[in-house]
């Protein structure tokens, strides 16, 4: 079931935003929410990728990590996008209190930063995990698919070079 993309090298932020736009264009059109975990150290570009995807989906307002609370929701023309940043998560109770199940039905896409800080249950399972790391020049991104829709998505955006 698991499928990994080759490493994608992104020399600068515009390249990252371009990848994000391609990722947004390749999202499945089904009503089921598509869940992406974003993993990588602080400052690698998880929020940048989120911003790029949201821009491509038509969000015009500011996109930054939620400072108050851990969750932000955006209404895009194709459905709601939920952005979670668990960096400041202190306990599993706090995650429960967010009431994530209430966000699930009408959402099209979930982008979750620091999913590894949520222990046990509590997060919707990932269709794909995007790993971001600092490279000699810029960033290195690798995508891991965990479901069938995730595989289709990784295949689609890795094949389409978008140039
Ligand atoms: P995170 O959410 O992972 O903590 P941010 O997206 O907030 O990281 O910040 C990432 C920083 O790295 C920003 O300053 C952004 O401009 C920069 N950045 C993003 N992508 C690249 C890239 N491909 N090459 C170099 N710098 C990048
Ligand atoms: Mg961030």
Features:
single chain; 163 residues; alpha/beta; eight-stranded mixed β-sheet; 4 helices; binds adenosine-5'-diphosphate; binds magnesium ion
Walkthrough of the structure:
It is a single chain. This protein is α/β, with parallel strands linked by helices and 163 residues long. The protein is 26% helix and 28% strand. It contains four helices and eight strands. Strands 1, 2, 3, 4, 5, 6, 7 and 8 form an eight-stranded mixed sheet that branches. A hairpin with a 2-residue loop joins strand 4 and strand 5 (79-85). Helix 1 (13-25) crosses helix 2 (46-56). It is globular. The two termini are 29 Å apart. The model has no long low-confidence stretch (mean pLDDT 91). The structure holds adenosine-5'-diphosphate and magnesium ion. The site of adenosine-5'-diphosphate has 16 residues, from helix 1 and helix 2. Adenosine-5'-diphosphate (ADP) is lined by residues 10, 12-13, 15-16, 40, 42-48, 113, 138-139.
């Amino acid at each position: 079931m698991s499928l990994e993309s080759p490493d994608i090298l992104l020399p600068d932020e515009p390249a990252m935003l371009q990848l994000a736009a391609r990722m947004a264009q390749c999202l499945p059109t089904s009503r089921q929410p598509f869940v992406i975990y974003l993993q990588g150290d602080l400052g690698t570009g998880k929020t940048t990728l989120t911003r790029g995807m949201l821009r491509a989906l038509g969000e015009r307002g500011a996109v930054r990590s939620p400072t108050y609370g851990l969750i932000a929701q955006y209404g895009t023309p194709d459905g709601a996008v939920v952005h979670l940043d668990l960096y400041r998560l202190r306990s599993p109770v706090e995650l429960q209190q967010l009431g994530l199940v209430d966000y699930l039905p009408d959402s099209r896409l979930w982008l979750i930063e620091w999913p590894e800080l949520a222990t046990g249950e509590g997060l919707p399972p990932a269709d794909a995990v995007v790993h971001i790391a600092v490279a000699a020049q810029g960033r290195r991104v690798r995508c891991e698919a965990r479901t069938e829709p995730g595989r289709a998505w990784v295949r689609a955006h890795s094949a389409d070079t978008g140039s």
